[in-house]
Design goal:
alpha/beta, Arc Repressor Mutant, subunit A, 2 domains
Length: 217
Amino acid sequence: MNLRILLADDHAIIRDGLRALISKQEGMEVVADTDNGRRAVELVRQLNPNFIVMDVSMPDLNGVEATRQILSYDPRIKVIALSMHSDRRFVMEMLKAGASGYLLKDCAFEELIQAIKTVSEKHIYLSPGITDIVVEDVVNLSQHPGGTVFEILTAREREVLQLLTEGKTTKQIAAECHVSVKTVETHRQHIMEKLGIHSVAELTKYAIREGLTSLDK
């Protein structure tokens, strides 16, 4: 049975390149691609892929939150993170979200294919440079108590925070999250209270630092 692969990356040149290369591999097919996490979640429900190559930093919904939602919908789906970020926060939160692999974008295409094959056989695949980060995190776990945005805020609050810092209005956020304007305002109030931050500018700095969004989005 062919691996049905969904590509999620906000750079068209990367999606096009991966589609062209993967299409040449026996037993693999790209069923769709998208440039944002929210659309990736929608495509999973529509097309039922069994494999996703997921960028970490994307607009509307980042790769961590998209992975959480997708695996909540169908835990059988395999997700490989493909990112330019080797920062511990990105790596560990993607793995906590349920990703089965993490590769850096400077890897060779052959490594991605090897990762897909490894993960399809129910193993974890990490780029060599990522392995050290994971080992260090486990060793130092007791020395790093909770406090990241993924531990302080709920999944919905993180979603609202990302959209807010990307310039979406309260009405736009309500429409995208399928909730009322009042609910969004409540989430915003809770976010500010939990973080002790009371301006959008400071929230934006925080969101960038914590990996919810990035400057180029």
